Amino acid sequence: MSYGLVWFKRDFRVEDHAALAAAARAGPVLCLFVVEPALWAQPDAAAQHYHLMLEGARELHAALRRLGGRLHLLVGDMPEVLARLHAQAPFSSLYSHEETGNGASYERDRAVARWCREQGVRWHEFPQFGVVRRLTDRNKWQSAWEAHVAAPPIPVAKPSFVDLPWPAQRAPTVEALGLSAQTPPRRQSGGRQAALDCLHSFLDERSGQYRGGISSPLSAPTACSRLSPYLAWGQLSLREVVQAARLQGARLPEGDRRRAGLSAFVSRLYWHCHFIQKLESEPALEFSNLHRGYDGLRENDWNQAHFDALVAGRTGWPLVDACVAMLRETGWINFRMRAMLVSVAAYPLWLHWRPVGLWLAREFLDYEPGIHWSQMQMQSGTTGINTTRVYNPIKQARDHDPRGHFVRRWLPALRRVPDTWLFEPWRMPADLQARCGVRVGEDIPQPLVDLETATRAAKARLHALRARPEVKAAKAAIVERHGSRKRPTKRTRKAAMDDAQMEFEF
Ligand SMILES: Cc1cc2nc3c(=O)[nH]c(=O)nc-3n(C[C@H](O)[C@H](O)[C@H](O)COP(=O)(O)OP(=O)(O)OC[C@H]3O[C@@H](n4cnc5c(N)ncnc54)[C@H](O)[C@@H]3O)c2cc1C
Questions:
Q1: pTM value?
Q2: 228 alpha carbon – ligand 1 mean position (Å)
Q3: pLDDT (tens digit, 9 = 90+) per residue, 186-196?
Q4: pLDDT in tens, 26-46
């Protein structure tokens, strides 16, 4: 008996699942989830991602059980797993969502497509985001996104299930996959139920803090939706989140802070796909400068000591080190602090974005290659189409942590340092250092470089390169291919200021 094979990867849900629904319409289905060691051996993979994925897979298994089926787990390289299964129990079609992943998953997909062609198996792929495969005209992208998110959610399928011809395998341990077992002790839990709880607490209450609350690392952990890991692993569908937010926004009265928050939130969900589209259209941007005129800018100046200090949270700039401490503990930090970390790495520390991006990919529970690599390049100034954004970590601390609560929470050594010196403790007179029990250079590090001088030199190097005629000339083609066509909606000046994150995104 032939059947359709449904391949779950970053889409651990039965709700609004186009691949499962299409397979169920066509005939009996077998639901498969594959742990692919080659993907987990990539330098952007981390144990926290693996755990989050397994938590999603466990709940998906339970949901399929309720429908009368199960999720079968196999381990191996995908083409080899398909061949094994096909030899035992031939299937006619493969069903999955499209994935815009890292280079390794792209190569894996090409190998799967080859295998399917050779075996005469039809592979049906469905978009799960508002990302368009083989996009030919960027001008039509915005309406394609809207059509995707506004379409009715796909009802939960009730397929007739078939079983694997042999017992399912067990998920390998993180050690067996060669991953470091260390994970952030306070990361978000995965799974559909945790995702729904997070969504509802945001829609019902927390969205009221969104506008005005997302920039400070103090308020952001509750003001932001915190939905990113669930979107990255498909434990929620993008469409269901957009529609739930729009519905809730429409129900709330004018003037309700949640209404304004939800509207700003939905625009982020648009940016989610806008950035992933860049990687979909240009997979090389994970590895190479989007604007090739920037090649060689930082690549040959690698400073291992700067990188090691950044990763250890020992740059000497309190806000930077506090962010690294929070990230290590929770696997999350808000947009502005991510942008600041990358800016500090790229400008005063003059570090190339690729190794910094690999480190952050492992640190971010919500690692989503399309957003991540586009943002890494944008904040490092190598896209050629964005204004240079350089964040001064001392100013950011004054603006977003004026009383020093965040810095003191994450850097206990600074708890007794008075407010006046908190963000520049290296300027503290020696007798005051002694009185508050902190020795700069011993208990806490000296800044790695002089911030002002190093930033000025970095900007000068970037601007000199940007001014070259050949670099200027290549810009138009990048705008044509990747630039946003979104027209800003009419917003009040105050709202635009609250919503400062928007100005960084193109
Ligand atoms: C250097 C850098 C790397 C980043 N890497 C990632 C990543 O790997 N994965 C990831 O999901 N986000 C990434 N972001 C974007 C952003 O910081 C996170 O999406 C956000 O902090 C997640 O928290 P949230 O879900 O509470 O966000 P919310 O503010 O509640 O936003 C809702 C959703 O909108 C999307 N979104 C929000 N901000 C952006 C943005 N600037 N660009 C694109 N989509 C956005 C995300 O899917 C997010 O879950 C990165 C930002 C920077 C500066």
A1: 0.95
A2: 6
A3: 999 999 999 99
A4: 999 999 999 999 999 999 999
**Domain locations in the chain?**
4-126, 192-280+486-504
pLDDT score for 328: 98
Cα 504 to Cα 343: distance, rounded to the nearest angstrom: 12
Ligand 1 within 6 A of CB of 11: no
**Any atom of ligand 1 within 6 Å of the Cβ of 242:** no
Q: pLDDT tens for residues 231-241?
A: 999 999 999 99
The finding on whether 157 has its CB within 6 A of some atom of ligand 1 is: no
Looking at residue 399, its pLDDT comes to 97
Q: What is the mean pLDDT of the chain?
A: 93
How far is CA 125 from its chain centroid? 22
Contact in structure between 28 and 3 (CB atoms under 8 Å):
yes
CATH 1.25.40.10 fits domain 192-280+486-504: no
Determine whether the shortest distance from the Cβ of 334 to ligand 1 is under 6 A. yes
Q: 444 has which bridge partners?
A: 440
How far is the centre of ligand 1, averaged over its atoms, from the C-alpha of 367 (Å)? 9
Cβ of residue 338 lying under 6 Å from some atom of ligand 1: yes
CATH superfamily, domain at 4-126: HUPs (3.40.50.620)
Tokens of 190: 């995965």
Contact 338, 360 (CB under 8 A): yes
**pLDDT of the residue at 162:** 95
Three-state DSSP string of 97-140: ECCCCCHHHHHHHHHHHHHHHHHCCEEEEECCCCCCCCCCCHHH
